[in-house]
């Protein structure tokens, strides 16, 4: 579905078209031993990437190789990880990485990309790092990318296609989902404010409004929709992958931009979600699946991606519900020593047994720790870091698990492990002054955005 900086000052942009001053770096608050351990693990994973996959999108930690998403690397891991380095105070590493990005990253490529992933990872990463450093070259890259992504919105409804060619603008993928349609406004909106180009904000918000307008009479959205016809294809509703960050962005777009339409849409939507998807049983509070039109329960599955919701609830002020749901997420983690992708919460049996190095449960622990000041959530964090080191650490980086019961590893370390998982772990243990969650909004890839316009 990811804030006052003391580690490095955010730049106040006097106007959208002005060139910001050089960022000043006050003495950061000293991180404690657990934060230092997380930073050490970040450096271990980052150095493995540099040794075996430098210049490519991702590290393969078991084979000590690399993986590129498309025909040519878009520097996914460096862009995604840059603001984590800055927040952790790894200044030299961040400066070197930033120079490499601005000298080597080009979006003038004849490749078809997935709009959602490129937006949250690359566009979000470039924007947050620009705000943290004041390096105008990063904003220029973001503007270039945003312009190349704009054709996705040229559907009859204005809801975006899933794929676009960065050179030709050709689009495809009319069957989409709420997450891929509604998880764009933070990035496109921030780009719009920083470049004074309204088209970015207008296109992304129009898509969000069009999706919201197609909710059911009871206020829910489904899993799959055709962006050309506006008709629902799959009417199952939930807070998991494919829908999750749609809800997150309704709330956060209100917080970042003061958009009252987003406030209204969030308040209406979360009411329906809490009414029809929340499910309490003897083991606690969970969120399952229901039909979007009737509200009838159709499944009792909950998973790693659903675990983002306590963070969103906490940020909205619903701390009681956030606490209860986080306890359930933690039970999911401790039942196997590390969380599965999906489980049936009535039987606590793993349905999809892999662990993809996901950050959401850690993100929620961080939000709850920040807003409640309860050390209980740092205790959770200690469990998380110990599990990651015990089960996922490899000779070269950290590896996803193909099965949380056997703990068998998978040759994959996605960029979000450095952008999100270790960033949230670090912030969970770092001094509270490192970052003020009341003033910063994280995108769903944990890239911090701030109202500097």
Helix content: 40-55%
The strand order across the widest sheet is: 3-4-5
Average pLDDT number: 94
Oligomer: single chain
Stretches where pLDDT is under 50 for at least 5 consecutive residues are: 1-25
Task: Characterize the main sheet.
Answer: 3 strands, antiparallel
Helix count, DSSP H or I runs of 4 or more residues: 15
Q: How would you classify the helix and strand content by structural class? A: alpha+beta
Beta fraction: 5-15%
Give structural notes.
- The structure is a single chain.
- It contains 15 helices and 20 strands.
- It is globular and about 55 Å long.
- It has 453 residues and is of the alpha+beta class.
- Helix 2 (76-88) runs parallel beside helix 4.
- A hairpin with a 4-residue loop joins strand 15 and strand 16.
- 47% of the residues lie in helices and 13% in strands.
- A 3-stranded antiparallel beta sheet has the order 3-4-5. It has a 3-stranded antiparallel beta sheet with strand order 6-7-8. A 3-stranded antiparallel beta sheet has the order 9-12-13, with no helix packed on it.
- The chain has helices at 33-53, 76-88, 91-104, 115-133, 136-149, 178-182, 185-195, 198-213, 244-257, 260-276, 309-316, 319-336, 360-372, 376-392, 416-429; strands at residues 58-60, 65-67, 112-114, 163-165, 171-172, 175-176, 224-226, 232-234, 236-237, 278-281, 284-287, 289-291, 297-299, 301-303, 342-344, 349-352, 400-403, 408-410, 441-442, 448-449.
């Amino acid at each position: 579905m990811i804030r006052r900086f003391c580690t490095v000052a955010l730049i106040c942009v006097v106007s959208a078209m002005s060139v910001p001053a050089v960022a000043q770096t006050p003495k950061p608050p000293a991180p404690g031993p657990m934060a230092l351990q997380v930073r050490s693990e970040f450096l271990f994973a980052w150095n493995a990437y540099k040794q075996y996959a430098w210049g490519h999108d991702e590290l393969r930690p078991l084979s000590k190789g690399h993986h590129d998403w498309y025909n040519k690397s878009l520097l996914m891991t460096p862009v995604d990880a840059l603001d984590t380095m800055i927040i952790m105070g790894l200044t030299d590493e961040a400066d070197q990485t930033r120079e490499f990005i601005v000298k080597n990253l080009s979006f003038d490529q004849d490749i078809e990309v997935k709009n959602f992933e490129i937006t949250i990872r690359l566009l979000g990463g470039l924007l947050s790092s620009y705000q943290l450093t004041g390096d105008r070259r990063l904003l220029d890259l973001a503007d270039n990318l945003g312009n190349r992504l704009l054709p996705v919105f040229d559907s009859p409804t204005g809801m975006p296609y899933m794929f676009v060619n960065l050179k030709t603008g050709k689009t495809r993928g009319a069957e989409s989902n709420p997450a891929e349609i509604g998880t764009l406004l933070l990035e496109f909106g921030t780009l719009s404010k920083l470049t004074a180009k309204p088209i970015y904000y207008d296109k992304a918000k129009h898509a969000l409004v069009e999706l919201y307008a197609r909710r059911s009479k009871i206020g829910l959205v489904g899993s799959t929709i055709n962006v050309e016809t506006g008709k629902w294809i799959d009417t199952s509703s939930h807070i998991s992958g494919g829908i999750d960050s749609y809800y997150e962005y309704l709330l956060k777009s209100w917080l970042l931009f003061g958009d009252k339409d987003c406030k209204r849409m969030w308040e209406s939507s979360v009411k329906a979600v809490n009414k029809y998807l929340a499910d309490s049983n003897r083991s606690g509070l969970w969120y399952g699946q229901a039909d979007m039109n009737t509200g009838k329960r159709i499944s009792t599955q909950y998973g790693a991606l659903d675990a983002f919701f306590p963070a969103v609830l906490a940020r909205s002020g619903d701390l009681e519900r956030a606490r209860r749901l986080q306890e359930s997420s933690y039970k999911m983690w401790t039942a196997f020593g590390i969380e599965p992708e999906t489980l049936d919460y009535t039987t606590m049996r793993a349905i999809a047994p892999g662990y993809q190095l996901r950050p959401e449960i850690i993100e929620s622990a961080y939000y709850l720790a920040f807003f409640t000041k309860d050390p209980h959530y740092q205790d959770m964090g200690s469990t998380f870091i110990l599990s990651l080191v015990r089960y996922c650490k490899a000779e070269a980086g950290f590896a996803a698990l193909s099965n949380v019961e056997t703990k068998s590893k998978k040759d994959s370390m996605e960029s979000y492990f450095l952008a999100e998982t270790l960033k949230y772990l670090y912030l969970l243990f770092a001094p509270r002054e490192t970052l003020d969650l009341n003033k910063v909004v994280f995108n769903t890839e944990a890239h911090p955005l701030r109202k500097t316009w």
